[in-house]
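TA notes, week 10

Several of you asked for a full example with nothing omitted. So below is the full record: structure tokens for the whole chain, then the designed sequence directly under it. When grading your own attempts, check the secondary structure regions first.
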């Protein structure tokens, strides 16, 4: 039987590591409806389980109509200060970007109290200009993605890996979507979430009133996952002004619907100015927007691998090696790994194509080909061949 929720253990473990570090604001960012509010409730329950009194925890959803009066910065500050007591307070503030001037509120709380502060937001700008200006060196950011394949299986109580993987590719990873739903219902919900993001996280916030053009740009990005894209290519394809295309691309990524993978010159050891690749945060939303994944399953699984590498904490770039390309160069903690993604490498020509870039990186770092193949797996000339489903479930 499917569960109502799945415990987001990895994110809870990250938050727990920073518990009571009152000089750091913990900020969780992620696309709207990816599970941030549920994570805050799960963390609240974990705090109580670990001995924190319920009266010391103040979990405020700033999307809720009942908290509309707290969207004024001064009112929010006064409300939070009224909750401070001798016992340490824990402030869990959900969708903080809804409060104009929220930065001043949090800055003042850091100065005036020893409260333990946690924020969520649906806009990547929380990680850049606003944080850099007001909370330099006093915040830690956690990027939250929708469900991993393992979490998806658990939430939907799915046993068969192959069948579950097909469902994961089709209906996506948003926690609100269930395998038990009809495809039409699932896609209707995903379409509504997309519209909510377009209106509230992009159009209103960025004052972009041409929603029709915004929708066209998003659909173009959905159709071109894994392909090099720039403002100029969007401009030419959609016949819109180049500056407009670039501003829409930036805004869509700020809303965390897409993530950018920059291209890295492996020989020159530098980020290239050539067009980046862009991967969508949820495959279900893509399928709901432009049709089923089955026509281009190779790019779909490439998208899933990129997201999983992000989920595991890697900094991910596309590697350029002469005229060859490494799908993903993944760095974490001073360690580097190289990944190629291919539906199959059983065909000799495909095997040569996928192996050649990795063979050129004989620097002692892990080299992996992720494939849907179930035969021919193992290590050949230092290059691992791993089934993608096994890899997704390996952590």
């Amino acid at each position: 039987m499917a569960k109502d929720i799945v415990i987001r253990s990895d994110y809870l473990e990250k938050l727990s590591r920073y518990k009571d570090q009152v000089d750091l604001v913990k900020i969780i960012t992620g696309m709207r409806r990816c599970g941030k509010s549920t994570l805050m409730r799960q963390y609240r329950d974990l705090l109580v389980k670990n001995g924190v009194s319920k009266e010391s925890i103040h979990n405020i959803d700033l999307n809720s109509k009942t908290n509309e009066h707290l969207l004024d910065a001064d009112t929010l500050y006064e409300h939070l200060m009224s909750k401070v007591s001798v016992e340490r307070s824990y402030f869990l503030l959900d969708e903080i970007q809804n409060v104009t001037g929220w930065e001043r509120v949090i800055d003042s709380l850091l100065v005036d109290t020893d409260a333990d502060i946690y924020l969520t937001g649906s806009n990547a700008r929380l990680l850049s200009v606003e944080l850099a200006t007001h909370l330099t060196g006093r915040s830690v950011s956690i990027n939250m993605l929708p469900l991993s394949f393992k979490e998806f299986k658990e939430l939907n109580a799915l046993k068969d890996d192959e069948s579950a993987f097909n469902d994961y590719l089709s209906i996506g990873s948003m926690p609100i979507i269930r395998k038990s739903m009809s495809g039409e219902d699932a896609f209707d919900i995903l379409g509504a979430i997309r519209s909510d993001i377009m209106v509230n996280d992009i159009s209103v916030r960025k004052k972009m009133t041409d929603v029709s053009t915004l929708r066209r740009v998003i659909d173009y990005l959905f159709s071109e996952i894994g392909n090099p894209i720039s403002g100029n290519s969007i401009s030419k394809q959609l016949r819109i002004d180049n500056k407009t295309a670039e501003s829409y691309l930036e805004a869509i990524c700020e809303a965390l619907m897409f993530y950018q993978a920059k291209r890295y010159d492996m020989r020159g050891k530098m980020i290239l100015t050539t067009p980046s690749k862009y991967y969508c945060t949820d495959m279900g939303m893509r399928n709901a927007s432009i049709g089923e994944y089955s026509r281009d399953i190779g790019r779909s699984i490439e998208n899933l691998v990129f997201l999983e590498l992000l989920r595991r904490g890697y900094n991910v770039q596309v590697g350029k090696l002469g005229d060859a390309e490494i799908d993903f160069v993944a760095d974490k903690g001073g360690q580097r790994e190289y990944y190629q993604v291919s539906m199959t490498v059983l065909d000799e020509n495909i095997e040569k194509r996928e192996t050649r870039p990795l063979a050129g990186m004989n620097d002692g770092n892990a080299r992996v080909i992720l494939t849907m193949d179930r035969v021919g797996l193992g290590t050949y000339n230092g290059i691992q061949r791993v089934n993608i489903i096994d890899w997704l479930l390996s952590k």
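Residues 149-392 form one domain. Use that as a sanity check on your answer.
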